[in-house]
Amino acid sequence: MTIEYSGRGDPARSLALLWRTSERTSRKGKPDLSVDRIVRAAIEVADAEGLQGLSMRRVAERLGVGTMSLYTYVPGKPELLDVMLDTVHGTAYDETGGPEEVPGGWRERLTRVARANWALCRRHPWLLQVATSRPVLGPNVTAKYDLELRAIDGIGLTDVEMDQVITLVTGFVHGTARGAVEASQVESQTGMSDEQWWAAHAPFLSRISDATRYPTAARVGQAAGEALGGAYSAEHTFEFGLERLLDGIEALIRRRTGQSG
């Protein structure tokens, strides 16, 4: 898998592009280009081909313009990637509404945060190919972070704990979403469905598997396979893990606020 890193571009140019402080407009007689059009085209390329297929040339082809014309608006691919990230994060709650719209308490609001981020990663799988330890400092990423923090504000956590809870939830989502994306792509990448893969391995497994030697693995593997309809279900892992994650956060809140039960 191709891994890219956010924040690799020139800081001044990236921030100017993210916050649109010095956007250029098309000149008369030139292609009708803008930063927004270029970014939308780049996102479409990445959605279809992954980051391994993203280049300034591919974006230019999609727009029907010369590659060099893009550099009038975007300094290069690193800065373009930062704006792509900021743009798609601005759509995270378009379909579900923000966590503040959820009736109930912090648990329901945090569940909305997790599900919205899961859906975002499924819509744009290339997000999982970007390492963001150096965050994109754009308006949409900042607004999303603020919105998600407000979902757990005033429930008894310190500011640092609030930050860590959001980091924990989004990190969990990214891990399980990566498994879902890999599972959805494995057939096209290998030319073999899960059913075909198991059928090909079954004759050999029947000869080498030994339930008496690995009794726990045999018992649990069979039960899980029957329950999940296969060796792995990313959706089940997400649902199960999210509930356990919320249980742990609830225990922390109870300890912080002195609640019992």
Summarize the structure.
This protein is mostly helical and about 260 residues long.
Shape: flat
| Order of strands across the main sheet | 1-2
Low-confidence stretches: none
Beta-strand fraction estimate = under 5%
Arithmetic mean pLDDT: 92
Largest sheet: 2 strands, parallel
The count of β-strands is 2
Supply the number of helical segments.
11
| Oligomer kind | single chain
Instruction: Please trace the helix and strand order, writing H or E for each element.
Output: EHHHHHHEHHHHH
What class would the helix/strand composition place it in?
mainly alpha
State the share of residues found in helices, binned by percent: 55-70%
End-to-end Cα distance, whole Å, is 45 Å
CA-based gyration radius: 23 Å
Organism: Nonomuraea indica
DNA-binding region: 55-74
Protein name: TetR/AcrR family transcriptional regulator
InterPro entries: Homeodomain-like_sf (IPR009057), HTH-type_TetR-like_transc_reg (IPR050109), HTH_TetR (IPR001647), Repressor_TetR_C (IPR004111), Tet_transcr_reg_TetR-rel_C_sf (IPR036271)
SSE inventory with pairings:
Blueprint: E1 4-5, H1 11-18, H2 35-49, H3 56-63, H4 67-70, H5 77-89, H6 106-123, E2 130-131, H7 139-150, H8 159-190, H9 194-208, H10 215-228, H11 234-257
Parallel strand pairs: 1-2
Helix pairs in contact: 1-5, 2-3, 2-5, 5-7, 6-8, 8-11
How would you explain this protein's 3D organization?
- The structure is a single chain.
- It contains eleven helices and two strands.
- The chain has about 260 residues and is mainly α.
- It is flat, with a radius of gyration of 23 Å.
- The chain has a two-stranded parallel sheet with strand order 1-2.
- The model has no long low-confidence stretch (mean pLDDT about 90).
- This is TetR/AcrR family transcriptional regulator.
- It comes from Nonomuraea indica.
- InterPro entries: Homeodomain-like_sf (IPR009057), HTH-type_TetR-like_transc_reg (IPR050109), HTH_TetR (IPR001647), Repressor_TetR_C (IPR004111), Tet_transcr_reg_TetR-rel_C_sf (IPR036271).
- Pfam families: TetR_C_1, TetR_N.
